[in-house]
Amino acid sequence: MNDLIEKHPLQPFLPGNARLLMLGSFPPPRARWSMDFYYPNLQNDMWRLYGVLFFGDKDYFLEKGKKSFDKDRIIAFLNQKGIALFDTAMEIIRHKGNASDQFLEVVTPVDLKRVLAQIPACRAIVTTGQKATDTLLEQIDAASPRVGGYSEFVHEGRPMRLYRMPSSSRAYPKPLEEKAADYRVMFHDLDML
After folding, report:
1. How many Å separate Cα 146 from the centre of its chain?
2. Which run of H or of E encompasses 108?
3. What's the distance, Cα to Cα, between the start and end of the chain in Å?
4. How many angstroms separate the CA atoms of 130 and 150, rounded?
């Protein structure tokens, strides 16, 4: 068992126009990264979901002829759409050498108040897995939404929605098209698609 505390390796990505904050749990081990940004593992379908939803092409964010995602294209897209990214854990213990949430122990959660203070236009948070949802719910007064749904809460006088989307990990047993259908409803609700 590995009992070393890992610190989050990335800074939060917080565009000034962010209307949506997307929170995962924690990045996979660096050996699985194809780029130095969020959702870097080629076996994770987050950027394929975005490609399907916004461009009708699951490979839109893949670099041509390479086995990596195009970080610059992703960042330009997120800035244009007003989507912020971070994770719910700042420090973890990884009890197995993989990215599985079931083997992550959260040592230090995100300081949500500090993050939201930097994105004042944000009115919705989406969690992309159960570990992220459970970790976030320890900081807010909201009901746990069903997968594909949302609950409402107020953060320092700001009305907010918490969406719970299916994990983009291929370990989550749902086809890409079905996951995209859940995300599509959320983006329509938020007038972002």
Report:
1. 17
2. strand 104-109
3. 44
4. 14
pLDDT digits (tens, 9 = 90+) for 59-94: 999 998 878 999 999 999 999 999 999 999 999 888
Q: Which residues touch 34 (CB under 8 Å, ≥6 apart)? A: 40, 41, 42, 67, 68, 69
What the block records as the tokens of 13 is: 């990505």
Q: Which amino acid is at 155?
A: H
Three-state DSSP at 156 gives coil
Contact 39, 24 (CB under 8 A): yes
Cβ of 147: how many Cβ atoms within 10 Å?
A: 16
C-alpha 136/C-alpha 112 separation (Å) is: 8
Per-residue pLDDT of 131-165, as tens digits, reads 899 999 999 999 999 999 999 999 999 999 999 99
Distance CA 83, CA 78 (A): 5
Whole-model pTM above 0.90? Answer: yes
User: In 10 A of CB 112, how many CB atoms?
Assistant: 19
SS3 79: helix
